[in-house]
Request: fold
Amino acid sequence: MNVWPLKFREMSDGSVLFSDDAGGFFKSSHSFLDRYAADSLTPVDGTFLREGNHGFDREFDLPWTSFAYRWARRQARPTRMNYVILVPTLRCNLTCGYCQVSRAPENASGFDWSAETLAGVLSFLGGLEGPDIKIEFQGGEPLLRVDLLEAVQDFCRGKFSRPQFVVCTNLQVLDERAWAFLDADDTFISTSLDGDRATHERQRTHGSEVTDAFFRNLEAAVSRYPEGKISALPTVDVASPPDFDALLDNYERYGIRSVYLRPINHQGFARKVRQGDNVLARWNRLHSEFINLLIARNHRTGRFMEEYYFSQCLKRVLRFDADNHVDIRNPNFFASDYVVIDHDGRFYPTDEARMLSRIGRIDLSIGDVGTGIDREKVEVLNSGAFNHFDPDCIHCAYQPFCGTDVIDDVSRYGRIDARRTDTWFCGRQMSLFDKVFEVLYRKDEAARASLAAWLGLVGWDDSMAPTHP
Amino acid sequence: MHSPKAYPVTSRRRDCIINRTLPGHSIHQRPFKYALIVLVAARIIASGGDMTKLPDATDVDVVVEIPPQFQKYADAAMLRLQVLYPACRLASLGGGISVISSGGFAQDQFRKDVLHVVYREKIYAETLTMRQALVAAVTSR
Reply:
């Protein structure tokens, strides 16, 4: 039998995790590692590897073909453009301390789409094929220009049979026209809720009246709309994290059961926020503690909440096609199925690329609505958009589940060929997948119950996380 | 079964390393076929790459022996180790990998890491054609 290459990682409990390129994994021991590396596998090892689909006899035999299928299903294929992030205005009515997108003052001029830009955006959308489109309105505060949002909404409803709209709003000021826009069944709300009231006020609203207005509008939206229409995420400052129990209570109170714990972003002006030393290590510890807290809380209350990105990584380990989140997509080709159009009509491959360009370090724009997407520039970015043969990733047990983040690397190191293991992206992903596998191999009822809930299963069975002595 | 062994290395050894002369046999009095010598300043390597030299660190020398069947991958492993541990100075010797490091340095862990890098290079080299055939079969039109 030929054994597909196994990558390995020593776990905190002293065991060794093995994975193959198609995402098959199991836990074993150092002695198995020695036997495997020295070509001295026992018959028992051979049986285990064969039954776990880690080997084959001949190219194109059934086990080989099966492995090739599983490998192929783990690769992200370029698909048609169906997700467009629009920034109709950079103006905003809040001044959050760590604003990531370089907002402009509410009364400033020159930061909204011109009539010409709007026409260019609609023309671009008109050239897209397929029945479905998802439009995400970003800002600034997009509801400052409901008229532009309505124009896009009307156009998309005429052009696509299944349009969907997400408004990323601070829910600070909502007039009748804004409520009417949000009322539509095809329209969803994404907002920021930084935990408990005190944290939200400290980080975002800076005053009790403004805070009151936000919570008033959030409560009105929650009572007005069905569960699932509103999503929220907190931005967490590692130097001053919120009380996580209070955060979860608050989210649950508003019917939001999925919390995407997000660190302060480095791409934009938020990089100036002082968070102290060893930010990555502190973030990873904080996140790990949050997952433990969630598992214990879920078990105690019987009401299951999740951390969004952790659930995505968990699904990525166990399923095909669980790569909607771009950080775990591989290859992660740019301007393939999604793109960003800024307030001036310029295209960007990601929102982070827009932020990074905004601070003047580099121009990552890839064309504009007048001239179209600059495919030559996209190809340059795409040259680093996969991890298969990265000299570090190729040996990493988490490679089949992980992705790349070229923009983050450029943002932090000014280059895309930094030693992978030294990057923020790798450090965060390693910690996340360490946690995923720690939870997968936990034997307690609390962990099993949360695993089942996060994966949408009736129950979790220990055999689903294989072990070889 | 391939647990790496550690041998003390004298100051003479360090001089040899610095001078890039590697008389490994005479120092160890055993017939090394291959060794990798690593000179390390003791440092804390934090996630994200921050490196801080340990205060009051004293240099300590370690040799990691490479089993014969892995020796042909030691050069590649050395290259990789130089990337992973930029504070190290490396040189090949005979039948093992030699590490010169400092107090506070997790020698056992480092020896294990060195051997794992050798394992990885062997696995990579021996399965590369398998991977190439897989990618070619799946992506060819």
